[in-house]
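Supplementary Text 2. Reproducibility record for the structural model of the 167-residue chain.

All settings were left at their defaults, and a single model was retained for analysis rather than an ensemble. We include the record here because the model underlies the residue-level annotations in Supplementary Table 4.
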Amino acid sequence: MSQKPLTEAKEILQLLSDIGVEHKTLEHPATFTVAEAEKLRIGLSSAGETKNLLLRDKKKRNFLLTASHSTEVDLIHLSEQIESKRLSFARPERLEEFLGIKPGSVSAFALANDSNHDVEFWLDSNLVGLDEIHFHPLVNTMSTTISFQGLQKFCDYTGHKLNIVDL
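Retained model, structure tokens:
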């Protein structure tokens, strides 16, 4: 893994290529929410559209949750599933501190910047096995598609356990 935080799409795309993860990327206007992305209908399969949340619990544990764009995330139910208490959304400063990214660009790819493994990664069970899962490649003006197997390979590379949760 890189010591210097990755900040540009070309860096994460090169990393994916280097570790053998097939990917396809589309450029589009900046999106900050799932609703904005849905309005664009940027030509990607809606089944693999995601929303990504950085969460924190009362013990100051950090969690990156990737959920299907259509999945409702109930923080109380989620906290029970991941054996945590009092989950809340992490402040924007934490995005930069732990994942090296800015709000609107949260995705599993930011785990490449978590060399200290301060963030646990949790994936919505609705995304398991899909051929196409879409993430921002560290910027919200592009969407990159990889398979579930590609995501597993990426997590293996970064040293992050890919935890599955039923939301």
